[in-house]
User: What shape does this take?
Amino acid sequence: MGPLVVRKFVSHVEEIRSVAGRADDGGPVKKVAVCAVVRNPFAGLGYVEDLSEIVDASAQLATELGERAMQLLGEVPESYGKAGLVGSAGEQEHINAAVTSIFGHALRGAIGGGAAWITSVTKPAGVDAVIDVPLAFKDDVWVRSHYDAVTVRVPDAPHPDELVVIAALSNRGRINARVGGMSRAEFLEKQK
Assistant: This one.
């Protein structure tokens, strides 16, 4: 992975079968997140202007995270998201560099496509931090039923000199989604 040397991977799988005591005809919602804990090449260096070393290396990492997430999901994803944490010896811009459009293009390649921008969030954090990875429909961000999140905690990370880079997928929108907006079915109808 070049400068993004992986210390460990952590995976999260969640399957939701009902909400408020009620299921719908779409089946369970399955959300997966795969996290790579990597060394931050700029940790402790203070301000560094050029972060392309992280940006460039993020494509290979995104491919691996996407492939691992697809194995866990076990079906075609409908939603995706990305996120990251940076340890205290780095700055938030370091983790943002790891999840730019370079990362996004490689993630789309690993999961079989996606036309919408990939929702994301990053933050500075210490070990055992929790982060909510936002999810949205992978082909049109305006499909409201798929606005969601998956909560992830990475044990023993990030250390001060580390980044945690996260890719997340979901197999469908929320159970019993009913707040309006474009549905997945309406999106698919528009594509015909």
Remarks:
- Residues 52-73 form the longest helix (22 residues).
- The chain is about 25% helix and 30% strand.
- The mean pLDDT is 95.
- The two ends are 40 Å apart (CA to CA).
